[in-house]
Amino acid sequence: MRLPLAAACSLGALTVCHSAPPAQAATAKTAPTADQNWVIQTESPTLANTVTTTPPEMLTQPESMALPESTPQALAARLPASPASITETPATPITSPTNYGAAALTTTPRRLTATPSPTTTPSSTTAKQATPPPPSAAITISEPTAQIVAQQSTPKPSEKLVRPKSAIAPPSQPVDPPADAVKPSRLNLPNFVIETNPVSQTPTTPVTSPSENIAPPIANDNTNNIAPAIKPTTPTPTGQNSSLAADLAVQVLDVKITGVDPEIQKILRDRLATRPGRQSSLNQINQDIATMLSTELIGSASFTTAISDNGISVTFQATPVTVQNIQLRNAKVLTTAVASEIFKDQLGQAIQPSKLDQGVRAINQWYLDNGYSLSRAIDVEPNRNGSLKLTVKEGTIDELKIRFVDEFGRTVDDDGKAIQGKTKESFIRREIKSKQGDIFQVSRIQADLKNLYQTGLFINAGVTLEGDADKTSVVYNIAEGANRQANIGGGFSSDTGIFGSATYNDQNLGGTGNQIGGRILLGSKDLQFNGKFTRPFRDSDPSRWGYSINAFRERGISRVFDDDILLANGDQVREGKIGAGIGLTKSLGNNWNGTIDLGYTRTSQRDGSGNVVQFDNAGNPLSLSGRGIDDQVTLGFTAGFDQVDNPSNPKSGSRLQLSTEQGLPIGTGSSAANKLSANFTQYVPVNIFNKNQQNRDTQEVFAFNVQGGTTIGALAPYKAFTLGGVDSVRGYGQGELGIGRSYIQASAEYRFPLISSLGGTVFADFASDLGSASLVPGAPGQDRNRPGSGFGVGAGIRYNSPLGILRADWGFTDSGTNRVQFTIGEKF
């Protein structure tokens, strides 16, 4: 059969026209002769060559001619759709001519012989089939940039078409090559053998490109005629009204992008290879479509071209992605709800990269605001399905280290030896809530430092970070205080005679934070002692009870019956106490702790010789029972809220304590009285003289304290509230301001650093017995003309010593007196 030239010369979407002179119509059935010439002329800027070949009985294709889709499968796709019986016969080697300056190429093609079958009518979807023209017929390709003309001499009687064994499809429906087909490169194209048989020939009508808006069916180096899919969901890019050959490069005059805002236009344009002033091809445009889709900013894309004599203009149409939801990756502390709130301006809207960037910055700010200083957002990835994938890196603690330092922060002493601590590391780690693998959070680190300070064992604690944001070691630098003191002494007193004394206190017994303390005085006339063991309740271990046990035997001048109150024999009243107690402490939740105390105390009033006395020289009773000895059993409860940073030297936070002590009617002089009290303290750090204060030890502080109490029921006179003294209104002596059943007291201090461990304070105190002096048995305050209320102001010095804070205050009272007073520890 004869290959219709209109079908054989159709180049994809190029328009092929055929015209035959009337005089040659009668010889339509003649076949080409051996001296037949094929002449291809082109005006394309990239195909400006004239090619002539003279095959004897076959058409050979030179290797250098880069015509589109020159595989056997592609030629078969351009044959008429009539069924044929196809057989395969061996072929002889043929040599590629060198007319085009290419190297000679010898190939051994497969020869296929096609035996025509009866003529069938093409389907309605197939382009109209044209018969080959007679000799010297002219075929013109109407592509503006290329023209191909074929001239023939006398045809041969017969012609056979060599083509692969595959289904024959009309030109408008290209057939993809089989997956196992061997695809030659551009510089190694195969040769094809065409043998002709006489067939009837009729004039041919023009065959135009398919009307579908798809890429022309011209094969190239890709297996598909469209841009390769980036993901399975990638929509097929579509070309509109394109008359370009797939690999035909033409000049680009203009490129436009429509359907998206200027921001996305710029992003897409920067990624396009098709640009004004450059050459491009259908393959390149399809690749640009795939590139645009790979940004994930658009859901679909297509293009149209406008062809002119000078080149083409390309318009890309894009549809932006609409953001539907947020998906988090690697997030533990950042929740979807938080991320959705931050990106709410994007949800349900066309995607905007600038808003995505704003959202990422807002996520990072959220991390900082919540103390996750090592966490950050590292990537936000849009997806054409409307999801935003937000990838974060939440910095974790790779390792926790404990490092002991001295009071100056040094890790080695003067001899170059590492500072060693007495506290067990296991105890410290129990107080630290942060664990290896946790997300690093500043507030949690601060809570750890607060827990360490609240143990009362450390005078300084800080944290340093080692490593980087991806692998961070948290180092706790801890300076221990002087947690152990021991003193011995001796002397002589009229009450005890010659005596010796010893005192021992250890706030960190065994390095576990347990406390033990005691004092013993052995004299020729008396024996006194007190001792206490405490296992403090720790917030770090809320399931474990804290407890304390104490016992005592003491004697001294009474706080109520002081120098102005004498016995009938002229001696001062000595108050003796002996007893024991136990307390249990447990968390009440919300930073509140509760303590239950059960105690027994025998209180006696005696003269200088140790004899029990019942009344003073004015006949006022000295005890509740009137016998000079009272036995009292009490059950107390205290609820405490303590949020100060350091119990021994607080700089910030507050403390509230509410207590009740109920007397139980057991023993001589017992009472069912109830004693109520409240105490509140607030510490406010300030920087009045040092605006850039960073060192806690030199922090300025405003400290405020308000307290009060009352007793309901029968009151023993020695248990009345005393006002005035170093722990009350400074400038007054102990109990000089008032003695009452009820009281209220307020103090304010400004504490500031001086040099090294030395600090200063300015204070003001006020107290009142609320007119309750007469309600105390014997009215000791009223009888001694105590004013009942008053205030004092003054200044003081603080020295932070190994024994604790040594305090010296110089107070001036409203009554005109002044006094310097010394003690250990802050007033509150």
TrEMBL record:
Residues 1-25 form the signal peptide. Residues 143-156 have a biased composition (Polar residues). Keywords: Cell outer membrane, Membrane, Signal, Transmembrane. Gene3D superfamilies: membrane protein fhac (3.10.20.310), membrane protein fhac: a member of the omp85/tpsb transporter family (2.40.160.50). GO terms for cellular component: outer membrane. Residues 106-180 are annotated as: Disordered. The keyword Hydrolase does not apply. It comes from the Bacteria. Residues 321-395 form the POTRA domain. InterPro entries: Bac_surfAg_D15, BamA/TamA_POTRA, D15-like, Polypept-transport_assoc_ShlB, POTRA. Residues 106-130 have a biased composition (Low complexity). The keyword Membrane applies. PROSITE patterns: POTRA. It is found in: Membrane. This is BamA/TamA family outer membrane protein.
